[in-house]
Write a structure and sequence with these properties.
Length: about 250
């Protein structure tokens, strides 16, 4: 596999346009790039097209116009690209095998790797996500936080270079959410995180894209963009609580 430098583009869209049948365009002339190694937050109100953008990048949906390039190669709708991994919002949509081990092995097996390679990939993914003790568990019986990390392991076992996270902290308790944040901060892959959990975006991402009304409204430093209260409210979002300056009380 080609070794990519940080300066190369992991993702590029050019005049990307998409509309569901009999509806107005949800995305219109969308153009942006993401460099290798970046962790980018994708924010926007409900209905802005964040999940749709992910499905276009993965080739699950076909654009009406425009182009998408992943590591310099055009995305072909309907064609599987092992360089791209998608972590669904609901882990139950991603976990369907009798055991965690089988779920994590499913992808590598379908890449027709040897049994020893599959075993190595599974052990690596379980270790990275801290889920090795769950290998023989039934996914359906796991907690929400455990399911989240196992779902990430099923993606990591494929060795994608670009990972898309769709609302990864949804339905997690505080402990599981902190574990997820710690994992994402250590992650080496280029990542795009779509989330309404703006505090998570602040902790994990070094760049944020604000998507609304079919276009990128703002692109840049998360503190600056999400700290702009009028901009956030204009696009039906709230300024994160941690970006408000609170006066501290004094004690005699």
């Amino acid at each position: 596999m080609k070794q990519l430098t940080k300066q190369e583009e992991a993702l590029a869209t050019n005049d990307l346009t998409f509309a569901y049948p009999h509806q107005s365009p949800l995305l219109q002339n969308l153009t942006f790039t993401i460099d290798c190694g970046e962790r980018v937050g994708l924010i926007g109100p409900n209905g802005a097209g964040k999940t749709t953008l992910f499905l276009l990048i993965c080739g699950i949906l076909k654009a009406n116009a425009g182009d998408i390039f992943v590591f310099g190669e055009p995305v072909q709708a309907g064609t599987f690209n092992p360089n791209i991994g998608l972590v669904f919002q609901n882990p139950d949509d991603q976990l369907f095998c009798p055991t965690v081990w089988e779920d994590v092995a499913f992808g590598p097996e379908n890449l027709q790797l040897s049994p020893s390679q599959v075993k190595e990939r599974v052990e690596e993914a379980l270790t990275i996500t801290g889920t090795e003790t769950l290998a023989e568990q039934v996914p359906h019986h796991l907690s929400g936080g455990q399911k989240c990390m196992v779902a990430i392991a099923t993606v990591l076992s494929m060795h994608p270079q670009l990972i898309l996270y769709d609302e990864p902290s949804a339905n997690l308790d505080l402990f599981a959410r902190r574990r997820l944040i710690d994992f994402l901060q250590r992650s080496q892959q280029t990542s795009i995180l779509s989330s309404h959990d703006l505090e998570l975006i602040l902790e994990v991402c070094d760049r944020v894209l604000l998507l609304n009304e079919g276009e990128i409204i703002a692109d840049g430093n998360p503190n600056e963009i999400m700290g702009n209260q009028s901009l956030m409210e204009q696009h039906r979002l709230e300024k994160p609580h941690s970006l408000f300056h609170h006066s501290q009380g004094t004690h005699d």
